[in-house]
Write a structure and sequence with these properties.
The protein is mainly α. 67% of the residues lie in helices and 2% in strands. It has a two-stranded antiparallel sheet.
Length: 270
C-alpha cells in the first residue's frame, strides 16, 4: 500500500471585497462629527445681539463655519462612496440617499453663509459714517434666525430622511448586523417628532427633550462609521454573492438577424 500524503482542510474566513470603500466611508462618517463644538463656538454670536457692532470675537464663528463646511462635504462623500455598494440592493433608494445628502449640504452652506455675513457687516458696515446701530443689530439677529431655521432643516430634519433610506438599505442587504438599521428605524421617528415640536414652538432647539430625541441617530451614525472603519461590510451579505454570480454568468447570445422568405420562413444572415 502506497502511503498517502495527509491532507488537511484549511478554512478561511471570507473577506470583505470592498474593504477600502468601507474604510473611506467610515472615515467620512466620523468626520461629520467635527461640527459638535459649534454649539460653543457660536455662542458669542447668539448671546450678543450687538455682535455686528463689535461685541465678542469672530474667531469662533470662523472655525465653526469651517467645520460645518467640512461636515457638508463629508456628508455628501459618505453617500457617494457608498452608492456603488448600496445600488446593488436598490438603485432608487441609493440615489435618494445621495440626493438627500446634497440637499442637506446645500442648507448647511446657507446657514454658514448667513453667519459669515455678520463678519462682513461688522468689518465693512458698522464702522462707516451714518451707519444705524439699531438697524445693524436687527439685521444681525435676522441672520442668526436664518441659521437657526436652516439648521433645523439641514442637520436635524434631513438626517431623518437620510437614515431611513440608509437603514432600509442596510436592513435588506445585511451589509452590517441588523442592530444598526434597527437603531436608525427607532431614532428617525424620534428625531422627526422632535423637529415637528420645535417647528411648532412646543420647545426650543437644543432643549433637553430635543437633545434626547437626537441621541439615537447620533449613536447610529457614529457607531456605523466606527464599524465601517474597523470591520467593514459583512462579507456574508447577499449583495456580494449576487455580484459574484452575475460576474460568472454566461452572456445571453444576441439574436441573429434574418430575412423573411416568401413562404414565411426566416433565413439567417451571416
Amino acid at each position: 500500500m502506497s502511503p498517502s500524503a495527509p491532507t488537511s482542510a484549511v478554512s478561511r474566513a471570507p473577506t470583505d471585497p470592498m474593504r477600502r470603500t468601507a474604510r473611506i466611508a467610515g472615515v467620512l462618517y466620523l468626520l461629520t462629527f467635527v461640527s459638535i463644538p459649534t454649539l460653543a463656538l457660536y455662542q458669542p454670536v447668539k448671546e450678543h445681539a450687538d455682535f455686528v457692532l463689535g461685541a465678542g470675537s469672530d474667531t469662533g464663528l470662523l472655525w465653526g463655519a469651517l467645520s460645518e463646511v467640512v461636515v457638508g462635504l463629508c456628508g455628501v462623500g459618505t453617500a457617494v462612496v457608498l452608492f456603488p455598494v448600496l445600488k446593488r440592493q436598490s438603485e432608487t433608494a441609493a440615489l435618494g440617499l445621495v440626493a438627500a445628502r446634497i440637499v442637506e449640504t446645500g442648507l448647511i452652506f446657507v446657514g454658514a453663509i448667513s453667519l459669515l455675513s455678520l463678519i462682513t457687516l461688522r468689518d465693512d458696515v458698522a464702522g462707516t459714517a451714518g451707519a444705524d446701530p439699531a438697524s445693524l443689530v436687527t439685521t444681525g439677529q435676522s441672520h442668526v434666525a436664518v441659521y437657526d431655521w436652516t439648521f433645523l432643516l439641514s442637520q436635524s430634519l434631513m438626517p431623518v430622511i437620510v437614515d431611513l433610506l440608509l437603514g432600509y438599505l442596510l436592513f435588506r442587504s445585511r451589509l452590517v448586523p441588523r442592530i444598526w438599521p434597527i437603531v436608525a428605524f427607532v431614532g428617525a421617528p424620534m428625531l422627526l417628532a422632535s423637529d415637528l415640536a420645535v417647528f411648532f414652538g412646543v420647545y426650543a432647539k437644543g432643549s433637553p427633550l430635543d437633545l434626547v430625541a437626537a441621541l439615537p441617530i447620533a449613536v447610529f451614525e457614529f457607531s456605523f462609521g466606527v464599524r465601517l472603519l474597523v470591520k467593514g461590510f459583512d462579507p456574508a451579505s447577499p449583495l456580494f454573492h449576487r455580484a459574484s454570480a452575475e460576474v460568472g454568468r454566461a452572456p445571453i447570445p444576441a439574436p441573429r438577424a434574418g430575412v423573411e422568405q416568401p413562404d414565411g420562413r426566416v433565413a439567417e444572415v451571416g
